[in-house]
């Protein structure tokens, strides 16, 4: 509870971004959204740690209806970039037992998965594209 109280601003910011990206994914294309969530600049001062940003996005996503893996990944990558942390969104595909095509997105930071599932869960997906944040 103390963590939530101390970082209420980050939680609210995450919630607003999740809601906006969720609506945008429903109404427009990924390429249009990517123009807005691309990170063009960042400053070293005021950096939040990666674990805190992941925590905020995970918790805020619980109250945004249908905040799917791509929605969470885009918001996490945006917030990480704004805090000076580079990341990669990896998108993969798999075929389920009933021959249904599935896609999934997860976020990589310094070579490890920080959001999107465990290594075992992700291993069933074949990566098809990496979406790097545009940090300059």
Describe the fold and architecture.
The chain is an alpha+beta fold and 136 residues long. The chain has one domain. The protein is built from six helices and four strands. Strands 3-2-1-4 form a four-stranded antiparallel beta sheet. Strand 1 and strand 2 form a beta hairpin. Helix 2 packs across helix 4. The protein is globular and about 45 Å long. The mean pLDDT is 86.
How many domains? The number is 1
How are strands sequenced across the largest beta sheet? 3-2-1-4
The amount of beta strand, in percent, is: 15-25%
- Largest beta sheet, briefly? 4 strands, antiparallel
Structural class: alpha+beta
Low-confidence stretches: none
Percent helix range: 40-55%
DSSP summary, beta strand count: 4
Q: Give the mean pLDDT.
A: 86
Distance, first to last CA: 36 Å
> What is the element string, with H for helices and E for strands?
HHHHHEEEHE
Rg computed from alpha carbons, rounded to a whole number of angstroms: 15 Å
Protein name: Lasso peptide biosynthesis B2 protein
Organism: Sphingomonas ursincola
Task: Please write out the topology.
Elements: H1 2-6, H2 8-27, H3 30-37, H4 50-61, H5 69-82, E1 88-95, E2 101-109, E3 112-115, H6 119-122, E4 126-132
Antiparallel strand pairs: 1-2, 1-4, 2-3
Keywords:
McjB_C; four-stranded antiparallel beta sheet; 4 strands; McjB-like; 136 residues
């Amino acid at each position: 509870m103390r963590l939530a109280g101390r970082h209420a601003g980050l939680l609210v910011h995450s919630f607003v971004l999740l809601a906006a990206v969720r609506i945008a994914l429903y109404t427009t294309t990924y390429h249009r959204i990517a123009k807005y969530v691309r990170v063009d600049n960042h400053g070293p001062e005021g950096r939040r740690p990666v674990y805190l940003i992941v925590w905020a996005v995970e918790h805020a996503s619980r109250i945004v209806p249908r905040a799917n893996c791509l929605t969470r990944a885009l918001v996490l990558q945006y917030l990480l970039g704004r805090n000076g942390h580079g990341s990669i969104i990896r998108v993969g595909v798999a075929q389920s037992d009933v021959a249904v095509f599935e896609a999934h997105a997860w976020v990589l930071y310094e070579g490890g998965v920080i959001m999107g599932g465990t290594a075992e869960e992700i291993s069933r997906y074949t990566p098809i594209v990496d979406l790097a944040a545009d940090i300059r």
